[in-house]
Design brief:
Pfam families: ARCH_RTEL1, DEAD_2, Helicase_C_2
InterPro entries: ATP-dep_Helicase_C, DinG/Rad3-like, Helic_SF1/SF2_ATP-bd_DinG/Rad3, Helicase-like_DEXD_c2, P-loop_NTPase, RAD3-like_helicase_DEAD, Rad3/Chl1-like, Rtel1_ARCH
Helix content: 40-55%
Strand content: 5-15%
Protein name: Regulator of telomere elongation helicase 1 homolog
Strand order of the largest sheet: 5-6-4-7-12-3-13
Catalytic activity: ATP + H2O = ADP + phosphate + H(+)
GO molecular function: 4 iron, 4 sulfur cluster binding; ATP binding; DNA binding; DNA helicase activity; DNA polymerase binding; hydrolase activity, acting on acid anhydrides, in phosphorus-containing anhydrides; metal ion binding
Number of strands: 20
């Protein structure tokens, strides 16, 4: 493997790197050496993950070597000063005091090796990163991967549960009661063999599960053991951004290097991790659960049930009947208070300042003083409802009470710092949030449940949703830095424009990079097709996209490109309603049949299970030698556009049929735009309209990234909306294709050039 000298650090790389890979690693090392945050964009297919891992681990390796030299020098100095022969022992005691002494960070810094926390959006993306690490010369570093019980739990009863929340609660119940033999085997396992020795150094979720099944030991808690001595920890975003998840999984931030890979969605994820929606149904469900819990506890305390029966059935609640009655009263009062909030008849909802959430909760005696005891009781009740026997009380399995607990954990996630006045702390938090109370159109099947379970089932009862929305991702970023994080690196294939992206994060990013691609210009074709084959303008704006003329012209456009594009064709729509409306029209005419004659069509579904089936069907069609590939019709921001690999023949062309703007009249979108306008100075000039346009731009660029997956790949990018022809749209395209964009007012010329492109590309 080539050994590179980059910024004075020796980096082992699996092959001779491209210039853009060296540039990328240089920026990573600059961040780490100068302790500066970085935002680094490098297109999909440029070896971003490999470069990121090699550079960061090479720096960590050099840091370890320097720390050892510092330690040896320290031992020598201590020996010389003390005249004793136990310099190493004295040095260890000195280091211990430096690490614990207040204000002594300057002294311990030279003896400290930061841990690397590598976060990505999904477990599958993390798995890909671990596989990349295994192929490098750094495969001897100690790693750990933190996963959910959904991925790691092997207990048959827990695995059968549908929701992850239910799995969490049942697992906790079994562990607390020592009723999980996999968890109980952990101590014996650790006595027989060190967890790291049994696993190996670089491990994936599948590796941990395999060892757990073989030894009948809990993989979930094995993973937590591995974290303690790991040099690099892999984990999903939400485990890092959510303070309660960090605490649950024991994620220590002090002095760490945090890398957010696939960070193009980080803005949204930061906001969502600090937000919640609490509906009338959620409240009604929680109230019903307290009713059933009270009945169960009353039954258990009756003279008819022997104590031995309670112990045998393992239903020993850690709360009292009075606790349940108090909680029910609190929930009923909260429901009544929300019903009394006035909402104008001309509006669907009412927006209030962020600190209004504390006023609402204080009305029902939930505050910074009472919240710890309440949260403890809520967690214990949810665990009880997920117990083998307790779950029989109600099929909701504590979903309502659990939702109340989750909401309160978000509101009270950041404790006031020492000496800070409570009102000042709440005011500071509220700057990033809005409270929105909305009247709902309730599904009739839920309406019956709400009426049956709530305190007031009168005909004039209002169905409400209480929303607490965060509009500043910088709120979460600042929280990470406040916990002592050393460096934050954000990276993805689609972060541009970097200026607005960094403004939203509200922390400095001195190190920035927009990388070119590793491919040659002849490997990609990009054109904006303004008109269909019938001469109709292709424009998917809200006024035009529902017209029959537009849908027919788009259908004819897809038909023509399906005929000339070899193998796989990906067609992205702005949203599900737009895609479904087009397909419905095409199926009532003969257009769907004509498109399918050239290539079979797979449509992206919304459900997780159905999506897996759709992907399998697409690859099956692609591997059928009797077919000319297949078409995958999908939506921007959907699963197909986000992280799936359509390398080589699987994705020879991407068609984008419109600009995927967020729904303009959605209250949350409107409030986000208002928030940016009101705080324009704080966000250094970023306004709501700019943000709104860039949401569409980034979604388009992410979909475009499906077409080129490695340095030998080639493909066409066909933008089928006249709005892509504007100078502003061109500037918003990824750097690596920006200068190759052509605009076609004549459909025939576009078809001609696509045919020529594929003929030339296939020759090479």
């Amino acid at each position: 493997m080539p050994l590179l000298d980059i910024n004075g650090v020796s980096v082992n790389f699996p092959f001779t790197p491209y210039t853009c890979q060296v540039d990328y690693m240089t920026k990573v090392l600059t961040c780490l050496q100068k302790s500066e945050n970085g935002v680094l964009e490098s297109p999909t297919g440029t070896g971003k993950t490999l470069s990121l891992l090699c550079a960061s681990l090479a720096w960590q390796e050099s840091r370890k070597a320097q720390v050892e030299l510092n330690r040896q020098a320290g031992v020598a100095a201590v020996l010389a000063a003390s005249g004793g022969d136990d310099g190493a022992g004295e040095m260890d005691r000195l280091l211990g005091s430096l690490n614990t002494a207040s204000g002594a960070s300057w002294g311990s810094e030279q003896f400290f090796v930061p841990k690397i926390i590598y976060a990505s959006r999904t477990h599958s993306q993390l798995s890909q990163a671990v596989q990349e690490l295994k192929r490098t010369s750094y495969n001897s570093v100690k790693s750990s991967v933190i996963g959910s019980r959904e991925q790691l739990c092997i207990h048959p009863q827990v695995q059968k549960l549908a929701s992850n929340a239910a799995k969490v609660q049942m697992c906790r119940s079994k562990v607390a009661g020592r009723h999980c033999h996999y968890y109980n085997n952990m101590e014996d396992f650790k006595k027989k063999s060190d967890t790291r020795t049994a696993m190996g150094n670089v491990v994936d979720i599948e590796d941990i599960v395999r060892v757990g099944q073989k030894t009948r030991t809990c993989p979930y808690y094995m993973a937590r053991e591995l974290k303690s001595d790991a040099d690099i920890v892999f984990l999903p975003y939400n485990y890092l951004l959510d303070s309660k998840s960090r605490k649950t999984h024991g994620v220590e931030l002090q002095g760490s290097i945090i890398i957010f890979d696939e960070a193009h969605n980080l803005e949204k994820i930061c906001e969502e991790s600090a937000s919640f929606d609490l509906s009338s149904l959620d409240l009604a469900t929680a109230i019903e659960e307290t009713t059933k819990l009270a009945e169960k506890l009353a039954e258990m305390s009756s003279s008819d049930m022997e104590v031995s029966q309670v112990e045998d059935s393992a239903i020993i609640p850690e709360f009292t009947l009075e606790d349940v009655i108090r909680l029910k009263k609190t929930l009923l009062d909260l429901e009544e208070y929300l019903d009394q909030v006035e909402i104008s008849a001309s509006q669907a909802g009412r927006t209030l300042p962020g600190n209004f959430i504390f006023e609402i909760l204080s009305k029902v005696n939930i505050n910074w003083t009472t919240k710890n005891d309440l949260l403890d009781k809520l967690d214990k009740m949810t665990t009880f409802l997920n117990n083998d026997d307790g779950s029989a009380i109600l099929n909701t399995k504590g979903a309502g009470i659990g939702k109340i607990a989750d909401c309160l954990k978000i509101v009270f996630s950041q404790e006031p710092v020492d000496g800070q006045l409570l009102c000042s702390h709440q005011q500071s938090l509220s700057q990033h949030f809005k409270v929105h109370i909305q009247s709902n159109n309730v599904d009739p099947k839920f309406k019956k449940k709400i009426d049956a379970w709530s305190a007031n089932s009168s005909t004039d009862k209002k169905e409400r949703t209480l929303s607490y929305w965060c509009f500043s991702p910088g709120h979460t970023m600042k929280d990470l830095l406040a916990h002592g994080v050393k460096v934050i690196i954000l990276t993805s294939g689609t972060l541009s424009p970097l200026d607005s992206f960094t403004k939203e994060m509200q922390i400095p990013f001195p190190v920035q990079l927009e990388n070119p691609h590793v491919i040659e210009p002849g490997q990609v074709w990009l054109g904006t097709v303004c008109k269909g084959p019938d001469g109709a303008t292709l424009n998917s704006d809200y006024k035009n996209r529902s017209t029959e003329e537009y849908k027919k012209s788009l259908g004819n456009t897809i038909t023509n490109f399906a005929r000339i594009v070899p193998n796989g064709l990906l067609v992205f729509f702005p949203s599900y309603p737009v895609m479904e409306g087009c397909i419905e029209l095409w199926k009532t005419s003969n257009q769907w049949t004509i498109i399918s004659q050239y290539k079979p069509v797979i449509v992206e579904p919304k459900g997780k299970a159905a999506f897996t089936e759709a992907i399998d069907e697409f690859y099956s069609k692609m591997n059928d030698p009797t077919l000319n590939g297949a078409i995958f019709m999908a939506v921007c921001r959907g699963k197909v556009s986000e992280g799936l690999d359509f390398a080589n023949a699987n994705g020879r062309a991407v068609m984008i049929t419109g600009l995927p703007f967020p729904p303009r009249f959605d209250p949350r979108i409107q409030l986000k735009m208002d928030f940016l306008r009101e705080n324009r100075d704080k966000f250094k000039g970023l306004d709501g309209n700019t943000w709104y346009r860039q949401q569409a731009t980034r979604a388009v660029n992410q979909a475009i990234g499906r077409v080129i997956r490695h340095n030998k790949d080639y493909g066409a990018i066909i933008l089928c909306d006249t709005r892509f022809s504007s100078a502003e749209s061109k500037r918003s395209l990824p750097l690596w294709v920006r200068d190759q964009s052509k605009v076609y007012q004549n459909f025939g010329l576009a078809v001609r050039d696509v045919i020529r492109f594929f003929k030339e590309a296939e020759k090479n």
